[in-house]
Amino acid sequence: MKNLEITRKISQGMYILTTQNGGCVVDAVSQISAGDNPLISVAVMKKNFTNELLHINDKFALSILDENVSGEIIKTFGFNSMRDLNKFEKTNVEDVDGVKIIKDSIGYMICEIIDRIENDTHTLFIGKLINAKKFNDKKEMTYGYYQEHKEDILKVKTESGETAWVCMACGYVYYGEELPDDFRCPVCQLGKEMFKKKED
Ligand code: FE
Predict the structure, then answer these.
(1) What is this structure's pTM?
(2) From ligand 1's centre to the CA of 74, what distance in Å?
(3) What is residue 4's predicted lDDT score, i.e. its pLDDT?
């Protein structure tokens, strides 16, 4: 886990990526060219349903989250799959260019997918920015801020005598006395050594 200690210090933001019929939380977003229609890259885990959709669809939107965003949005888009839950029904969204964007955000960027680069765990999707709107000047949430405040943002609570294990990478919570030895975070696939115990 030595490498994780340093790679987690790479500054990234917090976004909801949406595309036709799905979406998820992402942090690996970069602007990779200049001009009025810059290229934006985003890495999405291969096992995510959203990754499948991005191989069929031609567009994605990135809604930029602010530091006071409702934890429900992160839970809905980060810890669930559209295979089991209609994320859009639970969230205040608006249709822009055929993609649903998140209203409770700083604004959105709509990108047309121009390239897909596969690596072992993720696909890097490259999009050309075709439409964008800023809603407000709230402070954007960084991944580092999320790390520091995730238990408050997600309102992680334990009842008296109950034990919870919080994934230090993504904030996923497992309730139970002990984590099974072979436990892997269902969201980010990291092992049990990434979980911190929280008890009341
Ligand atoms: Fe995790």
Answers:
(1) 0.92
(2) 13
(3) 81
